């Protein structure tokens, strides 16, 4: 069950990142984050009301709220790092996020077997290579590296926090709702600050209403991924769940290949193969 839900997480996050990346080509990244998260919050609010999730309110919701703060910070840092580039450095470096939940799992006493440890190492290596690491070329701006490390820390923190935010499915809906409301509040504050500084909120032609379905998909895929990851982490070793869930860059790369006809470089194809091998080792270990 852990392997299955963690792989679903990587699929959902990978598709959400792909969709978000396309949307930010036409709409400011901050607007994409806030609107997509607001749509997800509205849907979750309806689900919580229908399932009576309010009865699950308790101290664990603070984990969800903390994840709601870390998420937008990580996303915005990641988008800014990608803008500074190069993507061949930023994308693989962001996979360091897996170190946070894996470290938490080890501190809590998890000890993966030899086969799982080998599978984790192979899978992470594959993810880094699938990002198409840039091994030569112009020097990378220090700010881009720092922003990527902030993003990796934020993504990893969300991994660790959301797995502690609930103990059952009804409570998980409430936790995800609290996370999204917090994300919208944090993102909205950042958006207001950007407006005061004269930053762009919508494209020159106005708000892209035709993009609402895509924005909804990004927000709902992201929240669903958080939910499936929480289930994966609660039903098995966090060290395994975190590594398998971190395969989402491979999904993003394959989506770009399938929908945009982007050619995979040899190093990316090799990375995808290693990620698959690592996944099999983790699942069978």
Secondary-structure blueprint:
Elements: H1 2-23, H2 29-51, H3 61-84, H4 87-94, H5 99-107, H6 114-130, H7 142-162, H8 169-196, H9 212-234, H10 238-245, H11 248-260, H12 266-284
Helix pairs in contact: 1-9, 1-10, 1-11, 2-8, 2-9, 3-4, 3-7, 3-8, 4-7, 5-7, 5-10, 6-10, 6-11, 6-12, 8-9, 9-10
Descriptors for this entry?
mainly alpha, 285 residues, 12 helices
Report on the structure:
By secondary structure, this protein is mainly α. The protein is 75% helix and 0% strand. The chain contains 12 helices and no strands. It has helices spanning 2-23, 29-51, 61-84, 87-94, 99-107, 114-130, 142-162, 169-196, 212-234, 238-245, 248-260, 266-284. The radius of gyration is 18 Å and the shape is globular. The model has no long low-confidence stretch (mean pLDDT 82).
Q: What percent of the residues sit in helical stretches (DSSP H or I)?
A: over 70%
- Describe the oligomeric state of these chains in a short phrase: single chain
Average pLDDT: 82
Q: Classify the secondary structure makeup into a structural class.
A: mainly alpha
Task: Specify the biggest β-sheet.
Answer: none
If helices are DSSP runs of H or I spanning 4 or more residues, what is the number of helices? 12
Order of helices and strands: HHHHHHHHHHHH
Model regions low in confidence, pLDDT < 50 over at least 5 residues: none
Bulk shape: globular
The strand count comes to 0
């Amino acid at each position: 069950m852990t392997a299955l839900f963690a792989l679903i997480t990587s699929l959902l996050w990978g598709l959400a990142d792909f969709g978000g990346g396309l949307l930010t080509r036409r709409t400011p990244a901050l607007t994409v984050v806030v609107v997509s998260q607001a749509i997800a919050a509205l849907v979750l609010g309806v689900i919580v009301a229908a399932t009576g999730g309010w009865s699950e309110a308790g101290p664990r919701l603070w984990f969800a709220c903390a994840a709601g703060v870390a998420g937008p910070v990580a996303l915005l840092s990641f988008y800014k790092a990608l803008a500074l580039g190069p993507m061949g450095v930023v994308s693989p470096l962001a996979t360091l996020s897996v170190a946070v939940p894996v470290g938490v799992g080890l501190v809590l006493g998890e000890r993966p077997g030899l086969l799982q440890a080998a599978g984790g190492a192979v899978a992470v290596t594959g993810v880094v290579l699938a990002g198409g690491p840039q091994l030569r070329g112009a020097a990378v701006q220090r700010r881009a590296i720092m922003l990527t490390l902030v993003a990796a820390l934020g993504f990893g923190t969300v991994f660790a926090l959301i797995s502690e935010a609930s103990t059952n499915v009804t409570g998980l809906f409430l936790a995800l709702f609290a996370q999204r409301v917090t994300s919208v509040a944090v993102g909205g504050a950042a958006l207001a600050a950007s407006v005061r500084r004269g930053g762009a909120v919508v494209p020159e032609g106005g708000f892209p209403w035709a993009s609402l379905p895509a924005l909804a998909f990004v927000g709902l895929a992201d929240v669903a991924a958080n939910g499936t990851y929480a289930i994966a982490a609660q039903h098995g070793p966090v060290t395994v769940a975190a590594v398998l869930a971190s395969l989402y860059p491979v999904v993003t790369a394959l989506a770009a290949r399938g929908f945009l006809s982007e050619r995979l470089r040899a190093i990316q194809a090799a990375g995808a193969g290693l990620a698959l091998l690592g996944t099999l080792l983790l699942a069978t270990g």
